[in-house]
Amino acid sequence: MSPQTAYPEKNVSRFDTLTGSAHWQGFTQMSEYEKLVIAEAEGCWLTTTSGDRVFDGVSSLWCNVHGHRHPKINAAIEEQLHRVAHITTLGMSADVTEKLAEKIVEITPGDLGHVFFSSDGSSSVEAALKMALQYWHQRQHPRPNKTQYLALSLAYHGDTTGAVSLGGIKYFHQLFAPIVFRPIRGPLPCSYRLPPGVTPETACDAYADEVEQLLKRHHETIAAVVMEPLVQGAAGMITHPHGFLSRVRKLCDDYDVLLICDEVATGFGRTGKLFACEHESVTPDILCLGKGLTGGYLPMAATVARPHLFEAFLAKTSESKQFFHGHTFGGNPLAAAAAIASIDLFEETNLIHALAAKTQQLRGEFTNLHQNQHVGDIRGRGMMVGIELVQDRDKKTPFDAAELVGARVCKRATDLGVWIRPLGDVVIVMPPLAATDEELEHVGKIVCQAIADVTEKG
C-alpha cells in the first residue's frame, strides 16, 4: 500500500459539509447541529464567537456553581500553576489534593471518611461499583456471591460501561446491551405519573414496598442499591416522594446491602442543601460526586466511602487487597485547588442559606405557566427545575416525539438569550447557584415566553 493510499489527502470542503466541524460532540446530531461556539464567559453569562450574550441557564451542564471567571477560583488555579500542575496519585499525592480530601470528609454526611478521586461523574460511579464488589470479597466475613446491583427504572449514572449497565433510558443504553451487565431493575419513584391505584399520599410506601420485594428475593446476590437521591436528573427531573430515600436506606440495612448514592448532579447545593442526602438525614455507604465539585471549572470527581468499606481493603501488600482501580488524572492538583476554592466560597458567601429564597423566586417565575394547557408538570428540588410539556394535560398524554417540542422550546429560548437544554419534552432550567434575583427573573421571563411561542403558536 502506497503512502498516498494509506493516507489520502483530505477533501476539506466535503469534510466540513458532512460534519459541520472537526469537533464530534456528545448527544448531538451533527448532521443538524447549528453551531453555538462560546468565546468567553463571565458570571452567569456566555458570549458567543459572533458576539451574542446568552444566560447560562443549565450551568454548563449542571456544574457551574459560583459563575464563570470567579476571581477566587481563578486565583487558586493560577497559584497552583506556579507550584505543580499534575502528578499521579498512584503511590504519591499532592498537598493540595490531601487538603481537598480532608475538606470533602468534613462536609459530606455522617461518617463518610475516605475519598477516591477520578475525573468525571461516570468514573466516580464506575469506581463505586468496583469498590462495592471488592468489599464483599474482602470483608471479615466475605460474601462473594454479592455481584449484582439494583438500579431504579430510567436510571442514568453515566456513559462508561459499568455506569451504562445501570442505566434504564432506552436511547442512551439499549444499543450497548451486548457489552454491559444487567442490573435488577427497581421502580420509577415518580411523583407525577403514578401507578394505578397509587396516590400522592401512598406513593412512598408503594415504591418502597416494591424495592423491599426485590431485596427479599435477591439480597443474597445484591452488592448494592445504586440511586440518585431525591431527583433523577437525566430521566427528566423525576422527583421522588418525600421519605423514599430514607426508606431505601433502612431497607439496605435490613437486608445487608450497600447503598450507593450518585450525587454527581444533586450535590453541591443543587437541591437546596449541600448534599441531597441531607434532606432525609441519610448517609450512604458510598457517595459519588462530580460536576459541581470544582465549581464547574475543571474535570474532577470523587467516590467517598465509609470506614467499614475502607477497612476491608487494608492488609499487607503481599495479600493484594488494595483497590484495583486508578486514574491518571485522579486528584489533579489544579482541579483540587479549584475545588477547595469553590467549597470555601459556599461558606464565605453563605450560599446554602440563600438558596431557599432563590428557589422560591425561581419557582415563582413559572407560576403563570400553570395557565398553559400544554404544561403538565413543574417539578424538581431546589435549583433543579424540570417543566414537562404534554399534548393533553388532563390525560398526561405526551407529544409525538417526532415533533421535538422540548428541543424547539430550548432553541427559541436560546434565540431570546437564555441557553437551556431539553430532556425529551422536559425543559430543564438549572441556573448557576450564584444567579442574582434579576437574572432569575430574566430566565423565568424568557423560558415562559419560549414555551408560549412554541406550544401556543405551533
From TrEMBL:
Compartment(s): Cytoplasm
Pathway membership, UniProt: Cofactor biosynthesis; biotin biosynthesis; 7,8-diaminononanoate from 8-amino-7-oxononanoate (SAM route): step 1/1
InterPro entries in UniProt: Aminotrans_3 (IPR005814), Aminotrans_3_PPA_site (IPR049704), BioA (IPR005815), PyrdxlP-dep_Trfase (IPR015424), PyrdxlP-dep_Trfase_major (IPR015421), PyrdxlP-dep_Trfase_small (IPR015422)
Modified residues (N6-(pyridoxal phosphate)lysine): 291
GO biological process: biotin biosynthetic process
Primary location class: cytoplasm
Record-linked PROSITE patterns: AA_TRANSFER_CLASS_3 (PS00600)
Binding site for substrate: 156, 291, 326, 421
CC cofactor: pyridoxal 5'-phosphate
Family statement: Belongs to the class-III pyridoxal-phosphate-dependent aminotransferase family. BioA subfamily.
NCBIfam families, alphabetized: bioA (TIGR00508)
Subunit note: Homodimer.
Protein name, per record: Adenosylmethionine-8-amino-7-oxononanoate aminotransferase
Taxonomic lineage: Bacteria, Pseudomonadati, Planctomycetota, Planctomycetia, Pirellulales
Gene this chain is encoded by: bioK
